[in-house]
Design a protein that fits this description.
Number of helices of chain A: 6
Radius of gyration of chain B: 20 Å
Largest sheet of chain B: 3 strands, mixed
Shape of chain A: globular
CATH architecture of the largest domain in chain B: 2-Layer Sandwich
Helix content of chain B: 25-40%
Number of strands of chain B: 9
CATH class of the largest domain in chain B: Alpha Beta
Strand content of chain B: 15-25%
Number of domains of chain B: 2
Distance between the termini of chain B: 49 Å
Oligomer: heterodimer
Structural class of chain A: mainly alpha
Distance between the termini of chain A: 70 Å
Shape of chain B: globular
Strand content of chain A: under 5%
Number of strands of chain A: 0
Largest sheet of chain A: none
Order of helices and strands of chain A: HHHHHH
Number of helices of chain B: 8
Largest interface: A-B, 22 and 30 residues
Helix content of chain A: 55-70%
Strand order of the largest sheet of chain B: 8-1-9
């Protein structure tokens, strides 16, 4: 019994130390987000879990994917592809405003204004999901 | 020695066999070619099809603008722009033969020429003809020089002068580009008739017939075999995909 009591005391202190460490790890990123040295775009991602590719790939390659597909759609008439600006908007539009632009919390504008990259797409393309009663772009995809 | 007649290719033979077999299996009135036109996602438009329109000027009612309104609605052309600068993809033309006084009314739009002058003159390749014969503008490469507008003998193209909002998701449009009738390409790719054709049918005029000019069994090809049809400005030999009867 004394042996086990001796063994028990260091293990309890170890557990406490571990708990403190875990609490520290959790606390540190939360603090960094609030007031970190590196500012980050504060976008609201309504549905971002199941995009057409991994988020890291999408962040880097979405302009190339869209540019590649737009030529194939316009010139060759390929429809219903997984890369489609209408589908971006249909999934990622803000639930309140219904748009991917319009504020620095909006899905497209949030990052683009942070990165100072002008976004031309929506000079011509519709940036909002369709009004109620009409068909969403994502529903057109078989 | 007289030249031998060309041997049918293996592909053509197989296709004819499959068509015959399917033709037997299908119910009367259901044509294989219509099934063959159904495109799956990602399949490009094919050159085996040539989309065309046949407009019966005898059935087109003077003063009716159902097709023009439907085009405006479908493609989001309504805007606050002054009328003289507003883009116009389709317009109604009233003709009167002075000698006899005979009047006809007809819609005029991009004629989707087989040899389109707008494509010839475009300096950037923005004006192009799709494999299925639809003449389009790729707004991504259009620089708004308006050379195509000058080249078009049908005055079928317009320039967008002002910034736009509220575009239709299927019909992106913007300031600084030339545009014209797309034959409702987004609807055709969904196997629907162009909006003007649908509106004309809904208004019970039925003056517009849309279909595949290359398919001898299509309604448009059959009608063109039966009645005399005309190309507007046939002297230019542009082989337009839009044909008229009764003019």
């Amino acid at each position: 019994m004394p042996m086990s009591a001796v063994a028990c005391r260091p293990s309890r202190s170890l557990a406490l130390a571990l708990l403190a460490c875990v609490a520290g790890f959790v606390a540190v990123p939360a603090a960094a987000e609030e007031a970190g040295r590196t500012p980050k775009p504060s976008i609201v991602i309504e549905s971002g879990e199941h995009c057409v590719a991994a988020p890291e790939q999408m962040r880097r390659e979405h302009p190339d994917m869209l540019r590649h597909q737009r030529d194939r759609t316009v010139h060759r008439g390929e429809r219903g592809m997984k890369v489609s600006l209408n589908r971006c908007v249909a999934c990622h539009a803000d639930h309140q405003t219904g748009s991917v632009i319009g504020s620095n919390q909006a899905f497209c504008q949030g990052c683009h204004s942070f990165a100072a990259v002008r976004i031309d797409c929506f000079d011509c393309h519709q940036s909002s999901i369709r009004p109620a009663g009409t068909r969403l772009a994502r529903e057109a995809v078989p | 020695m007289s030249p031998l007649p060309p041997k049918p290719s293996r592909r053509a033979l197989l296709g004819a066999g499959a068509a015959a077999a399917a033709g037997l299996a299908l119910a009367p009135g259901v044509r294989l070619i219509e099934l063959a036109q159904a495109r799956v996602a990602g399949e490009p438009a094919t050159g085996q099809v040539r989309w065309g329109l046949l407009i019966d000027a005898d059935r087109c009612a003077s003063g009716c603008t159902a097709c023009v309104d439907a085009c405006s609605q479908e493609n989001g052309l309504d805007s606050a722009v002054a009328l003289r600068q507003r883009p116009q993809w389709i317009r109604k033309v009233e003709l009167k033969e002075l000698r006899t006084g005979r009047e006809v009314s007809l819609p005029m739009m991009c004629q989707h020429c087989a040899d389109p002058p707008c494509v010839d003159v475009c300096p950037t390749g923005a004006s192009f003809k799709r494999a299925d014969g639809i003449v389009l503008v790729d707004r991504h490469s259009c620089i708004g020089c308006r050379y195509c507008m000058m080249a078009c003998p049908y005055k079928a193209r317009s320039f967008v002068h002002a910034s736009l909002t509220g575009q239709k998701p299927d019909v992106p449009r913007g300031k600084g580009c030339v545009e014209g009738c797309t034959l409702c390409v987004h609807r055709i790719d969904r196997e629907q008739n162009p909006a003007c054709v649908q509106a004309c049918a809904d208004a019970e005029h039925g003056a517009m017939l849309f279909g595949d000019l290359n398919d001898p069994h299509s309604a448009i090809a059959r009608r063109m075999r039966e009645v005399e049809t005309h190309a507007v400005r046939a002297d230019l030999a542009l082989d337009p995909g839009v044909r008229y009867q009764g003019i």
